[in-house]
Specification:
197 residues, alpha+beta, 2,3-Dihydroxybiphenyl 1,2-Dioxygenase, domain 1, 8 helices
């Protein structure tokens, strides 16, 4: 049960999803074109197939049609993945599913963090596909050592994000001001950076 002064994890997830979409619109010009294409396609389908429009209206999905549905991130260490799990938990998200990409020649395994309850999904269906590099599967010893050295030097979370994750766990949630700061600082983990360290 949420404390009355805490922001719902679902609303934090909704705000984060919107902030991430806004960030991508600035960082990736083709993202805007993609979103316009999706909007045009949705409009075309709804205009040409009234049955689909009725079904989406009856389920309430029409309200969420334009919401961001997913993001993705790749991390390099188990510690980064563990911290991401804590960060996503603040937003009411948990790991669902397991994907081993090694048969495709990609040295990672993955999961999707998302809300799991229908009410939470109604607020925000946002999910993040999260992949963890498996260093032990990099065959070249020099490349593996370089990757390990690079990963050992980096921190993908801001100090404020880490503090707010701790706060949410200790308090059982975040206040409005903390939730606003959390979204700003959590977003930095997903922002494009020109260097890894």
């Amino acid at each position: 049960m949420n404390h009355p002064n805490f922001v719902s994890p679902d609303l934090i997830r909704q705000r984060f999803s919107k902030a991430m979409s806004d960030m991508y619109r600035v960082e990736v010009p083709l993202y805007v074109a993609l979103m316009e294409l999706v909007e045009q396609t949705n409009r075309h389908v709804l205009d040409s197939d009234p049955q689909v429009a009725r079904q989406l209206n009856s389920t309430g999905e029409i309200e969420r049609l334009d919401l961001e549905r997913h993001g993705a991130i790749r991390v390099g260490t188990a510690a980064e993945l563990a911290t991401l799990a804590r960060l996503f938990a603040v937003m009411g998200m948990q790991p669902v599913g397991y994907y081993d990409l090694t048969p495709a020649g990609v040295p990672v395994h993955s999961t999707a963090f998302r809300a799991v309850h229908e009410e939470a999904l109604q607020v925000s269906p946002f999910r993040v596909f999260t992949s963890l590099l498996r260093l032990e599967l990099i065959e070249d010893p020099e490349l593996r050592a370089f990757a390990q050295s690079t990963l050992d030097k980096r921190s993908i979370f801001t100090p404020t994000a880490l503090t707010l994750i701790d706060c949410a766990e200790t308090q059982g949630g975040l206040t409005e001001a903390q939730a606003r700061d959390f979204v700003v600082h959590a977003l930095e983990t997903f922002r494009w950076h020109h260097s890894a360290t």
